[in-house]
């Protein structure tokens, strides 16, 4: 019996330490988090209440199912051809091991919050650079800005170079903080959700930024896609306020 339990634990650990798990989990998580907004886009054609949640300023009708599917194929292609090989290589070089104990609730909170703050800072610097350096914008970021009015799935509709650079920023954040693996998982989940919510195109009554004024939210990020020269930070607003690039919802 004990040998059977040991074999089961060993099998579970092999799955958790698979070099292909991080990219697969990230892609499936992104798609799952986008699903409720696909439902909202479908309901928008028949529900005035859902249409009232759409961000104004000429946002137009919700994206069509064909546009969603085309975006899905582009994101899937870049995950298979760029993100999956890169994360597998990094995973094999890092040779991670699973600790015996889970982190305390306080440790989990501190590490996740520290990662979000650090990632927000690194992303702000990188995002400003991509906009201010013409070569970087043309070869890295312009593809993402094809969406003048973003929608949820478009949060990761970027070129391979940009996706890999953001992956590097996220992994660097967890490495600098020294995260427990469980804290790292929570950070990536929250990071994915905030990215999806920022691009969703809806000003929802229960949106996270309505509860936490330090967050920008979907209207804040849609202003960036409209004007390009404002609201560079992904989640928090303090860097844009400090550097004079903050702009309220357009």
UniProtKB/TrEMBL annotation:
Protein name, as recorded: Fatty acid hydroxylase domain-containing protein
Compartment(s): Membrane
Cellular component terms per the entry's GO annotation: membrane
Signal found in the keyword field: no
Recorded GO MF terms: iron ion binding; oxidoreductase activity
Domain Fatty acid hydroxylase residue range list: 113-245
Keyword terms, alphabetized: Membrane, Transmembrane, Transmembrane helix
One GO process term, biological-process aspect: lipid biosynthetic process
Sequence intervals crossing the membrane: 20-44, 75-94, 106-128
Domain of life: Eukaryota
């Amino acid at each position: 019996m004990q040998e059977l339990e040991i074999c089961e634990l060993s099998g579970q650990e092999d799955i958790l330490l698979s070099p292909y798990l991080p990219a697969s989990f990230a892609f499936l998580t992104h798609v799952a988090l986008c699903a409720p907004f696909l439902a909202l886009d479908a309901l928008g054609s028949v529900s005035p209440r859902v249409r009232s949640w759409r961000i104004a300023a000429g946002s137009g009708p919700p994206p069509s199912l064909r546009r969603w599917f085309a975006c899905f194929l582009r994101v899937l292609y870049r995950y298979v051809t760029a993100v999956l090989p890169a994360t597998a290589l990094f995973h094999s070089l890092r040779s991670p091991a699973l600790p015996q104990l889970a982190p305390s609730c306080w440790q989990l909170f501190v590490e996740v919050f520290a990662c979000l703050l650090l990632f927000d800072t690194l992303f702000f610097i990188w995002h400003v650079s991509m906009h201010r350096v013409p070569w970087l914008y043309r070869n890295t970021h312009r593809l993402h800005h094809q969406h003048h009015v973003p929608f949820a799935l478009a949060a990761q509709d970027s070129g391979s170079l940009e996706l890999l650079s953001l992956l590097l920023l996220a992994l660097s954040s967890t490495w600098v903080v020294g995260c427990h693996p469980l804290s790292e998982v929570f950070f990536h989940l929250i990071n994915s959700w905030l990215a999806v919510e920022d691009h969703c195109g809806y000003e929802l009554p229960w949106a996270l930024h309505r509860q936490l004024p330090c967050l920008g939210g979907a209207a804040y990020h849609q202003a960036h896609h409209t004007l390009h020269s404002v609201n560079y930070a992904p989640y928090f607003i303090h860097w844009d306020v400090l550097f004079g690039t903050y702009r309220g919802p357009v």
